[in-house]
Design brief:
Elements lengths: L5 H21 L4 H19 L14 H16 L1 H8 L3 H6 L4 H13 L16 H16 L5 H23 L25 H23 L13
Helix pairs in contact: 1-6, 1-9, 3-4, 3-9, 6-7, 7-8, 8-9
């Protein structure tokens, strides 16, 4: 990965920081969210820097350590009372605008493809249309929440489409990893996501995007709006 230009690392690093700050804002500046995310990123930074994820011959795959803990955390948020209170305290407008981070993510993926560290099917050139989510997010935010000219049904449908696009790229990215489960990208496996800092894509950015959609569904379907005067803790 030493052949990658510094600009790719810089853009990706700024994207991760922007995503965390936007989601932090959506949480009504929850200190517990900030502490959990920073601690998790530090842990993944340390472990990935040792080359831990480069070994793809283990069972279960070490890559699972990037995905399973955030997924378990998301499940806990929806099944526990304190977790649901935390979700209901999230700001729907900011959750919608949050998806602009998917624009630089898709640009980084395209650049990684040009340097032959991920397969083309993970880029917009190869049929990954997830960049639509990022490009359309400002429109949904402005027309839907500033101008208030979009119905909840339209915003709900937009979230559904964007979630489907997210699942599509996650599906192909996982099955393009050089593991015993590989089904795509044999000519160029997805190796970038095994290296720091790109491990932060599946272990931080994807879970935050997923959570933002699921939380938006809960708010739009059940009218779970936050109380701005209430501070919610995960303790």
């Amino acid at each position: 990965m030493e052949h990658l230009p510094v600009s790719i690392y810089f853009v990706f690093g700024v994207t991760v920081l922007l995503a965390i700050l936007l989601f932090y804002k959506a949480t009504n500046r929850s200190n517990i969210f900030w502490k959990i995310v920073v601690s998790w990123l530090l842990f993944q930074t340390i472990i990935s820097s040792t080359g831990f994820y480069k070994n793809t011959d283990t069972f279960p795959p070490r890559f699972a350590l990037l995905l399973l803990p955030p997924i378990i955390m998301i499940i806990w948020l929806f099944v526990s009372l304190k977790g649901r209170l935390f979700i209901d305290n999230l700001d729907l407008k900011t959750l919608t605008l949050f998806h602009i981070v998917r624009i630089p993510v898709e640009l980084v993926l395209f650049w990684l493809y040009t340097y032959k560290v991920i397969p083309g099917l993970m880029t917009f050139e190869g049929g990954n249309l997830d960049i639509f989510s990022g490009l359309s997010a400002p429109f949904i935010y402005y027309v839907g929440f500033v101008k208030k000219k979009l119905s909840k049904r339209v915003i709900l449908f937009w979230n559904f489409v964007c979630l489907a696009l997210l699942m599509n790229i996650v599906f192909h990215a996982i099955l393009a990893l050089p593991t015993g489960f590989q089904r795509f990208g044999f000519e160029q496996p997805n190796i970038a996501l095994l290296y720091f800092p790109f491990v932060l894509l599946p272990t931080c950015l994807v879970p935050l995007v997923l959570l933002s959609h699921l939380a938006s569904f809960r708010k739009l379907l059940f009218g779970k709006e936050k109380n701005a005067s209430t501070k919610i803790s995960l303790h």
